[in-house]
Automatic annotation (TrEMBL):
Organism: Lentinula lateritia
Listed name of the protein: cysteine--tRNA ligase
Assigned EC number: 6.1.1.16
Top-rank taxon: Eukaryota
Biased composition (Basic and acidic residues): 765-781
Class of the enzyme per the UniProt entry, highest EC level: ligase
Coiled-coil region list: 686-716
A GO MF term: aminoacyl-tRNA ligase activity
Stretches assigned to the Cysteinyl-tRNA synthetase class Ia DALR domain: 534-590
Chain segments carrying region Disordered: 737-781
């Protein structure tokens, strides 16, 4: 081997460090560096929905946001994510809703006609609702009246209705006592109106089944509670809950796919894990952290909290010991009565609930029953992911007690100090400043919102705000920032695609000039700076608002470059910027398509199928055929205005025929049109806005012209008077002046006093003006 050696090599020194991914971790309430436990493999569990009703905007906020975070982890940072989500398909809400639906449907089917008995039942239900629900929000003295004479309830309710309508402060105080007061009053008022209508129908002899069903339908919110209280113990069919949950689970995933939310890698359902749940609870008892009482099993929070290496309520330790609404909600309506059990502590929560009449149940060592709310996630997540996971996500409202209880019982089962490494909680959703609440019926379903906005616009709305902050979803947000972002990007992609298409169609490979001057170098440098800033934003706990701003700034700089370079544009540089921006937007889930496609890409289609070539081509072919026919006709006629008429046909093709087909032709200085493809709705809107501006300008011009005409007529009317007569009656008040000079200018006033020099000078100027006006008048004749 030769004695000649290669020179020493020195490793490069980075001038810009690589950003490190940090995530806001609810376990520390700080942004902490993300360190997966096993290389680039990430175990992630996400709390799924309780399926008993239509999915709403709260679900969209949570699951679209979690989908964005998951896409960033998978498609941007390149982690191998194992994403697990559960479906709660047995729960107090599901059982109650299924039972009540069944009872109401049966009652409706069994009711064949309207009679006094039916009216009496609904009225009895109304009275019970007033005392049990509406009265909760009333002042104590008025609440007491509701418990006395039935005969006075109508008049008392009328007084309340009058107070609600005329006294806002009184109503607000009622809402402070009970946030459901307004909703309950509305239900009561609607039911009473239905009862009065039914009574009138009875008097008129109208007793049809249609009238009976109208009464039931209009009073169902109240009637179903009354029926449930009377007959709930008679409902024992477990298929009712199963069928309801299955129906709403399908609807939930239909909605998620419409929002472009990816399916979980693994989906778990509570009812499919009953043997594992029972085994899980048995082991917690064996480890000394749970006890049986009255056929139920409770987690011993005190024993767990005092054990070495364990801490209860890691997320909200200040909530420890509280038995507030959140804790009670965790136990649910199916929790056994306090009289039948003995809890060691008020913080203890149910792992297994003893069965109650009218509920589905499973056999267990402690008797028939069903799982507590919190245990399901612990069991299913452990079954799939093991004794530890990297990420656990859910809405912030689940932090306590649900997630704290999840961690406690899981760490008690695995006898480990840490079950979850990173807890990420999405922020609350407010609608026009008000927090959404399903119990208050203050919510918008996903189906309703998708009739107003697209899935992309909804996702953009969430991306413009931090994932763990409160989001205020409002008309101003959608019509303002979201619309501006979408419009800016639409225009950018449309222009760039047109330029790229034009460059390719020209077939020119080189014009002998490299088109890489200072402007191009600056834009390329901005591109690479943007890539770094974009990564830094996402490393900063998925800061999507900042990341979107980076993309918008790059688009703005690229547009500035396009406007300044004219025909000297380096299309390759612009195209590269556009492809990267599009790729990052698709990474967020804002569109579908190839990784290098310019634009949002294609929206996913549930139908798929073959393309109908004729259906696609015929509208365009008809437009061209119509244009050809018009040109041929003008050429054959050889009229004097043929050239002008042909240009008018060209304008019609551009403005009337092609725009509804999504084709825009922008006239250029060299006589060649720049061809653009864009959504027809956007082109129509832009065309109509342009026309509206033109019409407004024309109207303004015509208004100014009319104002000038009227002004001239006024001048001419004034000029009719001879200058010598303007200071004489009837043009001035009789006796105002006494004598005049030869030009008709007053010398004395009506009493013969000589006018001052300044007064005569002023009058002389007025005469000179009138001379000009009179001359203008005489000229117009």
């Amino acid at each position: 081997m030769s004695s000649i050696k290669q020179p020493a090599w020195a490793p490069p020194v980075p001038i810009q460090p690589e950003p490190v991914l940090k995530i806001y971790n609810s376990l520390t309430r700080t942004k902490t560096e993300f360190i997966p436990k096993s290389g680039r493999s990430v175990k992630w569990y996400n709390c799924g929905p309780t399926v008993y009703d239509a999915s709403h905007m709260g679900h969209a906020r949570n699951y679209v946001t979690q989908d964005v975070l998951r896409r960033i982890m998978e498609d941007y940072f390149g982690y191998d994510v194992q994403f697990v989500m559960n479906i709660t398909d047995i729960d107090d809400k599901i059982i109650k809703r299924a039972r009540q639906n069944h009872l109401l449907e049966k009652f409706r089917a069994d009711t064949k006609l309207l009679d006094a008995n039916l009216v009496s039942q609904v009225y009895t239900a109304w009275r019970a609702f007033l005392r049990n629900e509406v009265a909760v929000g009333l002042p104590s003295d008025e609440r007491a009246l509701f418990t006395e004479n039935d005969g006075e309830l109508d008049s008392q309710f009328s007084q309340i209705a009058e107070l609600i309508q005329n006294n806002k402060e009184w109503k607000q105080e009622c809402l402070k006592r009970d946030e459901k007061f307004d909703m309950n009053f509305t239900s009561a008022n609607r039911t009473l109106s239905a009862v009065r209508h039914a009574e009138s129908s009875l008097k008129a002899g109208s007793t049809s089944q249609e009238e009976a069903h109208k009464l039931i339908d209009d009073s169902q919110d109240i009637l179903v509670l009354f029926l449930d209280e009377q007959y709930k113990s008679t409902v024992t069919d477990p298929s009712l809950s199963h069928n309801l949950a299955s129906y709403w689970e399908k609807r939930f995933f239909d909605d998620m796919r419409r929002l472009h939310v990816r399916d979980p890698d693994t989906l778990t359902r509570v009812t499919e894990y009953m043997p594992e749940i029972i085994t899980f609870v048995e082991k917690i008892i064996g480890n000394g952290y749970a006890y049986e009482s009255g056929g139920s099993v409770y987690f011993d929070t005190k024993a767990f909290d005092e054990a070495p290496g364990h801490d209860y309520a890691k997320l909200e330790p200040w909530s420890k010991g509280k038995r507030d609404d959140a804790m009670v909600a965790g136990e649910g309506a199916g929790a056994p009565s306090q009289n039948n059990i003995t809890r060691h502590s008020s913080s203890d929560f149910a792992l297994w609930k003893a069965t109650k009449p009218g509920e589905p149940s499973w056999d267990s060592p402690w008797g028939k029953g069903r799982p507590g709310w919190h245990i399901e996630c612990s069991v299913m997540a452990s079954a799939v992911l093991g004794e530890n996971m990297d990420v656990h996500s859910g809405g912030i409202d689940l932090a306590f007690p649900h997630h704290d209880n999840e961690m406690a019982q899981s760490e008690a089962y695995h006898d480990c100090p840490t079950w979850v490494n990173y807890f990420v909680h999405t922020g609350h959703l407010h609608i026009e400043g008000l927090k959404m609440s399903k119990s208050l019926k203050n919510f918008i379903t996903i189906d309703e919102i998708l009739q107003k906005y697209t899935a992309r616009q909804i996702r953009l709305a969430f991306l413009t705000q931090l994932w763990n902050a409160k989001v205020d979803f409002s008309e101003s947000l959608m019509a303002g920032e979201v619309r501006n972002v979408e419009s800016t990007l639409n225009n950018f992609f449309t222009n760039v695609k047109a330029l790229v298409s034009q460059a390719r169609d020209s077939g020119v490979t080189s014009d002998g000039y490299h088109h890489y001057e200072a402007a191009e170098k600056e834009l390329v440098e901005k591109f690479h700076q943007s890539q770094h800033s974009f990564r830094a934003a996402l490393c900063d706990s998925f800061n999507t608002p900042e990341a979107l701003d980076v993309l918008r700034e790059l688009v703005s700089r690229t547009n500035t470059y396009l406007n300044s370079r004219g025909k000297a544009v380096n299309v390759g540089v612009v195209e590269n910027n556009a492809r990267w921006v599009a790729k990052m937007l698709r990474m967020f889930g804002l569109g579908e398509g190839g990784s290098s496609e310019i634009g949002w890409g294609q929206e996913s289609s549930a139908e798929g199928g073959a393309v109908d070539r004729e259906e696609i081509l015929m509208p365009y072919l008809r437009a061209l055929s119509t244009f050809r026919d018009g040109v041929r006709r003008l050429a054959i006629d050889k009229g004097d205005s043929a050239l002008k008429d042909i240009l008018a046909l060209c304008d019609k093709l551009r403005d009337e025929e092609l725009i509804p087909l999504g084709v825009a032709l922008d006239d250029q200085e060299d006589g060649k049109a720049l061809l653009k493809l864009a959504p027809p709705s956007e082109l129509l809107k832009a065309r109509d806005e342009k026309r509206a501006i033109a019409l407004a300008k024309q109207a303004k011009k015509e208004a100014a012209k009319e104002a000038e005409r009227l002004k001239r007529l006024e001048r001419l009317a004034k000029g009719r008077v001879d200058p010598k007569e303007i200071f004489r009656p009837p043009n001035v008040k009789e006796g105002l002046y006494g004598s005049y000079d030869g030009n008709g200018v007053p010398m004395t006033d009506g009493e013969g006093k000589e006018l001052s020099k300044s007064a005569r000078k002023k009058l002389g100027k007025e005469r000179e003006t009138q001379v000009k006006l009179h001359e203008e008048y005489l000229t117009s004749l």
